[in-house]
């Protein structure tokens, strides 16, 4: 039996800790804050518990759904409500796309998202032949023109990465797009109606996933979870590795046979500065975007239900339209459990409708440097302009995610390969998390599995 340390109690670290415990090892999990879960977090809005961080997991790859099921959580799927794009003065249906690259040009034209000139350019497709990695925006612009990037790719990438289309690597973020758009002929079959849903969730909220994993760890008797412990350094010792841990000012050194570092790039870089300097330098070059989510509860009065089209799951907003919000998610229309959670909630007799807006893109951090009230006000102004909603909310809760999402810049895949090569030179060390091979929950779970396997296999 060996002893491992996992640094970081987000979903990546929790996954690694669980795998190591399941393999019969002792694990010490160190989390800097007083709460496990990282970007999976719950909040209370007008007495209803909802996600104020990540709210869905991809269903078309197995890792996150498999983890949820393994720790005893039920899995649900979004309703049939579809998204809109708020652009050129109206809410318009989102046509079929692959991260904004149109898969049906007739649908795109009918949506009214592009100007007539934009449609003409999109139809005059030019096949790009990029030499190496290229940004998603440059790739799509070369094939369909700038307007497709500005009005479709930007809002979709803004949703997933809070990033800029012309900076994010196609190879790292949407490798299928490189393959698709560099072909002469694009043939994408219509999705079969019985295809598996793209997304999944957990009734009651995704925040339950880390909590259920943590409960399983506690039940295993093999994992010691310590909160409020900031790891400052990972160092080599004659016997293996050790971490320098700071628990509310009291510094200790914890020895282990192996260490999994499951923290964002900046703290990981600091921890590895001496132990793996090449990896640390590369990690320090990964930028992060900040964003904020405002979750609202509205009384389900007729003027509110009339304004919010319940056929829509929400809308995305292209940056060129100059609005404050980049998206709105009508959570009550997207998730049956959110609608149910709002029933009879106000004074036990009036239904509440919960939904959220999101604000903030990479490079636009100053827009978030205002008081919470200002983010609420700007969101309500945009909601009113988009939907006609003028009622006052019963409650509004702001959750900020400073440095929440890593930006996979052009060259990211090569950067990650250099990081992994440098980390592999330190026996017993592994890294995982959103900084490497995908920011989504499923990718993070996969990276946690991989890191646990790597340290367990070493020595
Ligand atoms: C607002 C928002 C919405 C999102 N929505 C979705 C979604 O709907 N679906 C989806 O699939 N993905 C979504 N994502 C992405 C996804 O949630 C995250 O990428 C993922 O949860 C990251 O998990 P992680 O464990 O790698 O990192 P984190 O969740 O960041 O966890 C890292 C942990 O390490 C701790 N830590 C940091 N430094 C130290 C240190 N020095 N010592 C000890 N501990 C430390 C932190 O406190 C944190 O708990 C969203 C992200 C954001 C920000």
Low-pLDDT segments: none
Number of strands: 21
- CATH topology of the largest domain, what is it called? FAD/NAD(P)-binding domain
Helix content: 25-40%
Average pLDDT works out at: 95
List the helices and strands and how they pair.
Elements: E1 3-7, H1 11-22, E2 26-30, E3 42-45, E4 48-51, E5 57-58, H2 63-70, E6 82-87, E7 90-93, E8 97-98, E9 101-102, H3 105-111, H4 116-123, H5 136-144, H6 146-161, H7 170-173, H8 175-181, E10 199-200, H9 208-220, E11 223-226, E12 229-236, E13 241-247, E14 250-256, E15 258-261, H10 265-271, H11 277-284, E16 288-299, H12 302-307, E17 312-316, E18 327-329, H13 331-334, H14 336-342, E19 352-359, H15 372-387, E20 395-406, H16 412-424, E21 429-431, H17 441-457
Parallel strand pairs: 1-2, 1-15, 2-11, 6-17, 15-21
Antiparallel strand pairs: 3-4, 5-10, 6-7, 8-9, 12-13, 13-14, 16-19, 16-20, 17-18, 18-19
The protein binds flavin-adenine dinucleotide (FAD).
Residues 7-13, 30-33, 38-40, 53-57, 230-231, 262-264, 267, 291, 293, 401, 404-405, 433-434, 439-441, 444 line the site of flavin-adenine dinucleotide (FAD).
Overall description:
The chain is an alpha/beta fold. It folds into 3 domains: 3-35 and 207-286 and 408-457, FAD/NAD(P)-binding domain, CATH 3.50.50; 42-78 and 288-406, Polyamine Oxidase, Chain A, domain 2 (Alpha-Beta Complex), CATH 3.90.660.20; 96-181, Orthogonal Bundle (protoporphyrinogen ix oxidase, domain 3), CATH 1.10.3110.10. It is built from 17 helices and 21 strands. The protein has helices at 11-22, 63-70, 105-111, 116-123, 136-144, 146-161, 170-173, 175-181, 208-220, 265-271, 277-284, 302-307, 331-334, 336-342, 372-387, 412-424, 441-457, and strands at 3-7, 26-30, 42-45, 48-51, 57-58, 82-87, 90-93, 97-98, 101-102, 199-200, 223-226, 229-236, 241-247, 250-256, 258-261, 288-299, 312-316, 327-329, 352-359, 395-406, 429-431. Strands 7-6-17-18-19-16-20 form a 7-stranded mixed sheet, sandwiched between helices. A hairpin with a 2-residue loop joins strand 6 and strand 7. Helix 2 (63-70) packs across helix 17, helix 5 runs antiparallel to helix 6 and helix 10 (265-271) runs antiparallel to helix 11 (277-284). The mean pLDDT is 95. The site of flavin-adenine dinucleotide has 36 residues, from helix 1, strand 12, strand 16, strand 20 and helix 17. It comes from Nocardioides antri. Residues 11-455 form the Amine oxidase domain. One of its GO terms (molecular function) is oxidoreductase activity. This is FAD-dependent oxidoreductase. InterPro entries: Amino_oxidase (IPR002937), FAD/NAD-bd_sf (IPR036188), Zeta_carotene_desat/Oxidored (IPR050464).
